[in-house]
Amino acid sequence: MKQTTIRHDWQLNEVVALFETPLNDLIFQAQTLHRQHFNPQEVQLSTLLNIKTGKCPEDCAYCPQSAHYDTGLVTEKLLPVQEVIEAAQQAKQQGATRFCMGAAWRQPKDRDFPQLLEIINEIKALEMECCMTLGMLSEQQAMQLKSAGLDYYNHNLDTSERFYTQIISTRDYQERLTTLENVRKASLKVCCGGIIGMGETIEDRASLLVTLANLPQHPDSVPINQLIKIAGTPLENVETLDSFEIVKAIAIARIMMPASRVRLSAGRVEMNDELQALCFLAGANSIFYGEKLLTAENTDTNHDQNLLKRLGLKPC
Ligand code: SAM
Ligand code: DTB
Ligand code: SF4
Questions:
Q1: How many CA atoms lie within 13 A of 225 on its CB side?
Q2: pTM of the full structure
Q3: Which atom of ligand 2 is nearest to the CA of 156?
Q4: Dihedral over Cα of 137, 159, 189, 217: its sign
Q5: Which string of DSSP letters, residue by residue, matches the chain?
Q6: Is residue 237 packed enough to be buried (19+ CB in 10 Å), middle (13-18) or exposed (0-12)?
Q7: 266 CA distance to ligand 2 centroid (A)?
Q8: At what angle do helices 244-256 and 12-19 cross, to 10 degrees?
Q9: What angle do CA 214, 220, 223 make, to 5 degrees?
Q10: Cβ(180) to ligand 1 under 6 A?
Q11: What is residue 97's predicted lDDT score, i.e. its pLDDT?
Q12: Active site amino acids
């Protein structure tokens, strides 16, 4: 039952107005749309693994893996195939349906491809959805990943085009958009979202969502991350976000991209069960599941399973 039109003509002022809408009205709109596109009891579980850690040449101000900041991270080369597959098997056993791998690269090098393609092959043999986030991609690189069986590619816009310049200087917004185009041209599914709580304004949050929703095709998955403040990064002391801001961002993502999976992503360790329940009510229908994100801690899997059970939610 898909009654709503999927729009690609969102205007900044109407999205800012959504951010100013009373929370009850906003959640009602979001939940109504959610039910037209999804089973409201289902939550998709994705497990992350960092397959290459640290020493990244980019200067993303939020990131523990940037070589520009001293965050005390132990660096690691690209993990051997077997180690990755064991982690995927374990994720599957714990109930994850998608295995997402991240690498601290600006862009993968051609010499990494044989190993990446082998990893994809092996994960597809486990009958899991497979996602990678490796930095910028050329169209040809995206096609290679697609032909090995990759389902999703994650590449976040992170924030508005305006605020982006205060967060990253080593690559521009247009390069991110070009990677997203290359990923679509290769017929990969797109996972693209951003981070809130980096000191951006409401207009910046609205502008990020406008850019996402006005792409030629909505991203299939939209991760909404709350900044995890990492000691040693320029954002370590940024002001803490009011808890309801993540609920609003999720509700508005749901309203603007009603058929996409909206993921309550980084930052759940800081959230209590009630706040997470509110995020599900606002239209989040996916989480990162597993005790680690890429380098940062995530919630305990037993706790998550129990929370879903208490809320009558079913993993999918
Ligand atoms: N290097 C690749 C890239 O940047 O595209 C892939 C890995 S990168 C760590 C993936 C995403 O993680 C970033 O785009 C950002 O949205 C998110 N992220 C990184 N550090 C974070 C933090 N401290 N808090 C919240 N999200 C974070
Ligand atoms: C996304 O949007 N969030 C994930 C995933 N895509 C790659 C990463 C969150 C990273 C949090 C910080 C860390 O674990 O290093
Ligand atoms: Fe590198 Fe990605 Fe971290 Fe930016 S977000 S520093 S590109 S690992």
A1: 23
A2: 0.97
A3: 2
A4: negative
A5: ---S-------HHHHHHHHTS-HHHHHHHHHHHHHHHS-TTEEEEEEEEEEEBS-BS---TT-TTBTTS---PPPB-PPPHHHHHHHHHHHHHTT-SEEEEEE--SS--GGGHHHHHHHHHHHHHTT-EEEEE-S---HHHHHHHHHHT--EEE---BS-HHHHTTT-SSS-HHHHHHHHHHHHHTTPEEE--EEE-SS--HHHHHHHHHHHHTSSS--SEEEEEEPPP-TTSTTTTPPPPPTHHHHHHHHHHHHHSTTSEEEE-TTGGGS-HHHHHHHHHTT--EEE-SSBSSSSB---HHHHHHHHHHTT-EE-
A6: exposed
A7: 6
A8: 140
A9: 90
A10: no
A11: 96
A12: 56, 60, 63, 100, 131, 191, 263
Which of the listed residues 170, 294, 298 should we mutate to test ligand 1's pocket, taking the one with most ligand atoms within 8 A of CB?
294
Which residues are CB-neighbours of 304 under 8 A, at least 6 positions away? 287, 289
Backbone angles phi, psi at 234, to 5 degrees: -60, -20
Sequential pLDDT tens for the chain (316 residues): 455 689 999 999 999 999 999 999 999 999 999 999 999 999 999 999 999 999 999 999 999 999 999 999 999 999 999 999 999 999 999 999 999 999 999 999 999 999 999 999 999 999 999 999 999 999 999 999 999 999 999 999 999 999 999 999 999 999 999 999 999 999 999 999 999 999 999 999 999 999 999 999 999 999 999 999 999 999 999 999 999 999 999 999 999 999 999 999 999 999 999 999 999 999 999 999 999 999 999 999 999 999 999 999 999 9
Q: Which two tokens stand for residue 229?
A: 């403040």
CA separation for the pair 242, 224 (Å, rounded): 15
**Which one-letter amino acid corresponds to residue 303?**
H
